[in-house]
Amino acid sequence: MDMKFKGMKPSRRSFLTGAAAAGVGSVAATVAKGQTAPDPAITELQDWQVYLGDGVDAAPYGMPSKHESHVVRRTVEWLTADNVSSINFTPLHELDGIITPNGVCFERHHGGAAEIDPAEHRLMINGLVDKELVFTMEDLMRFPRENHVYFLECAANTGMEWAGAQLNGCQFTHGMIHNVMYTGIPLKLLLAEAGLKTNAKWILPEGADASAMTRSIPIEKALDDCLVAFKMNGEALRTEQGYPVRLVVPGWEGNMWVKWLRRIEVGDEPWHHREETSKYTDLLEDGTARRFTWEMDAKSVITNPSPQAPLTHGPGYTVLTGVAWSGRGTIPRVDVTLDGGKNWHQARMSGPSLNKSMHRFYFEFEWDGKPLLLQSRAHDSTGYVQPTKNQLREWRGENSIYHNNGIQTWYVNEKGEAENVEIS
Amino acid sequence: MSKFPNQLALVAVATTSVVALSVGLSERAAYRADLAAAEAQAMAEETQAAEASAVAEVAEAETVVTEEVTEEVVAEAEVVEEAVEEPAEDVVAEAPVAEDAPAEEMHAGMAFEGGTSRPALFVGAAWAESHESPMIGELEGITFDLGREALPEEVAAWNIDIRPDGQGLPVGSGDVWTGEEVYIENCAMCHGDFGEAVGRWPVLAGGWDTLTHEDPVKTPGSYWPYLSTVWDYVHRAMPYGQAQSLTDDEVYAITAYLLYLNNLVDDDFELSNENFTEVRLPNEDGFFMDDREEGEIPAFSEEPCMENCKDSVEITMRATILDVTPEEEEGAEVTEAAAETSEEPATEEAAAEEAPAEEDATEMAAVDPALVEEGEGVFRKCRACHQVGEGAVNRTGPHLNGVLGRTIGGLDDFRYSGVFEEAKAAGEVWGPENLGAYLADPRGAMPGTKMSFAGLRSEDEIAAMIAYLSTFEAQ
């Protein structure tokens, strides 16, 4: 993916219009404080108070309320040549808590979303093993399984922002992430079933899709916490997330979590395939590149307010919230600033604090109606502190595309409208 | 799995019994295990009874299946006996682990995994408690006896990966000139005749000395470290939308041509499995192992300032100036459109049931909805290059709205192959017959066509595709 926009603008856009539309879409008419006339929402009978609603089974598989139809994944068309090998983004500004609903988990395909009949799906283990094996889905369902909540972040998340503020909305700047509870088989059990030879040092998971996605993963990680997962948030994996079975590589870049997993080869050296050489390597300013940058650094973003989720209520008490995560552990602390980093406050963490999972933070404050420069800064359990974008650029330059975990700034004006900016 | 619930229950009996035996737990645990075993046994009997009565109603052929099942059940029962005899050994084998971990923890671990009993889980429970990774040695000899051995032909069919040291390369060869032909036919429509790329598709040639520039161009010649990556990727995933359709020799030839486009070999070069590893790409030494731990991470691990950290703050850059965020309104429209579409079929069906309007009836009679649906599936093979439906535009291939009844080569804004221009000049029009012939054998029906598609295999697929395409009118 070429991450920098070059060429014609897609269309004229006023971010103010966009913000207003977002507001109207999600918020019902606000009742003014000084209201003297009675509120018709109270004094008049509403249809739903009078007429019967749908019976059970009106929707055998339930969908969100029609009033939530704006909560969808969205793509940025100019990012890729074609929407089959492309990406869309999780609407982080519309979500709360730590779990991402299955229907809005961002998608990244390299050869489209393969539609696989589970009866025809096989998982093969071959290479440096005592016995090369083939499993059916039925076989896999008979292995012991575990449940874990993990974030999956694309290495290119925030990749469009290396050279400066580019996209207006945390969905676009930070939405290549989701956080899901996986049910799966510890990979170490499957490898033990085949029996690793002593020179087994790497594995190569491979997808059954038209891109036959492959990545090299060191055996230490494979035997540590990797899962071969078939459920997400309790139900079968979605087609676009690798149905019927995918690899889970906790804390490591999303590209390695091979979807539609059909084969795991065991070898003594890495394979240096396309997605670990020409892509997913981090080009530095001097022209050399880091390879095998697997772990995702600690990162956070304020999801509300943000460009797609402006403050619509005027001055007064308000709730600032966001998410934070680290590929190396948990997030015990997030700092928040309202004045562009002059003064920082510790945010309130809420919800489960799980290893390599998204964390939720809140910071409630009285907004005086003056402009704000909002930032959040994650601290992970190893003591690592999320850097500013400029600190990051000092190490990486602006061409590395991947692993941009710099601190995000939102400028909120007097009207409560928010914009993606960078500050001194 | 659910086909054999009785077996499952029996396995449950086996495993639960072994828990009590192998771990040698307290009386209470043993008692609980007995309860579970009894329950599982009861379940097994119930399921068997239910199945027996169901079986009585079905044909003879299925009775045979039931017999097989029964045999398997017997086999499982034998396993149960074996398993019951084994535990003493298991306990001995696991003794060192038991010494390391307090008995209570072990107990908790067992409960956590649902009371299963195989030694592997016993170890697994210990891992879960300690949060430590197992060593490979600990796993030796522990299996679940699931899956089956892969046959050599099966491994050969899927084991297609190539490594920098040449491991995995099949015997074969291809030269630059052949490579150019194969490339022009299969790759040039996206990557350009000289690897310069069309639109935003990847550039495959040039880019030398751009890695330190503002806009680096990463090609095999400028960036990729190993030639094996080119061979592997072209073979496994290209041409886009027609993966794994190239022969090994064609892949060698394309790889040779890409080396030529990158000025790395002369035009008389032939690449083969023999000389493959002699070819080195210029940027092989341009990569180094992730070193964040040595520099960045320590630098980013200091306690940050919390109060009075700076005197002033200026906005230095704004996303609104660049203005490349997709319109919010567009998103809303898409959502509405999607909602409308999802509601439409129901409305149409309802209308059709009541009293189909005459016009609709004539139109609908011509196209079998099931065939259209099948055609939609077949169209997956085409959509890498062709668009159809609302908003369809020309991509690598022309859009296909209203293609039936359209003059061949009739879109003014698409650059067709010569053979299409000729057909257009002759006033030929696409109909079910000539389109069917073209779909069956593109290069046979339209010699010289740029379309790299090999053709649809079956008459059914062709009929389905034509039915599907006929539902899209020109817009």
- Contiguous runs where pLDDT drops below 50 for at least 5 residues of chain B: 1-31, 52-137, 329-365
Low-confidence stretches of chain A are: 8-29
Reading side by side through the largest sheet of chain B, how are the strands ordered? 2-3
Main sheet summary of chain B: 2 strands, antiparallel
Strand percentage of chain B: under 5%
Helix content of chain B: 40-55%
How large is the share of residues in beta strands of chain A?
A: 25-35%
**Helix content percent band of chain A:** 10-25%
Radius of gyration of chain B: 33 Å
Would you tell me the structural class of the helices and strands of chain B?
mainly alpha
Mean pLDDT of chain B: 73
Strand order of the largest sheet of chain A: 4-3-12-7-8
Structural class of chain A: alpha+beta
What's the CATH superfamily of the domain at 118-290 in chain A, by name? Oxidoreductase, molybdopterin-binding domain
Order of helices and strands of chain B: HHHHHHHEHEHHHHEEHEHHHHHHHH
In summary, what is this structure?
The complex is a heterodimer of chains A (424) and B (475). Chain A is α+β, with helices and mostly antiparallel strands and 424 residues long. Helices cover 12% and strands 27% of the residues of chain A.
Fold and architecture overview:
The complex is a heterodimer of chains A (424) and B (475). With 424 residues, chain A is α+β, with helices and mostly antiparallel strands. Among the domains of chain A are: 118-290, Alpha-Beta Complex (Sulfite Oxidase, Chain A, domain 2); 299-421, Immunoglobulin-like (Sandwich). Chain A is built from 8 helices and 23 strands. Chain A has a 5-stranded mixed β-sheet. In chain A, strands 5, 6, 9, 10 and 11 form a 5-stranded antiparallel β-sheet that branches. The longest helix of chain A is centred in the N-terminal third of the chain and has 12 residues, at 15-26. Chain B has 475 residues and is mostly helical. Chain B folds into 3 domains: 5-139, no CATH class; 162-286, Orthogonal Bundle (Cytochrome Bc1 Complex, Chain D, domain 2); 358-469, Cytochrome Bc1 Complex, Chain D, domain 2 (Orthogonal Bundle), CATH 1.10.760. A two-stranded antiparallel sheet of chain B has the order 2-3. Classes of the chains: A alpha+beta (424), B mainly alpha (475). Chains A and B meet through α1, β1, β3, β4 and α4 of A and α6, β1, α8, α11 and β4 of B. β14 (289-291) of chain A pairs parallel with β4 of chain B, so a sheet runs across the interface.
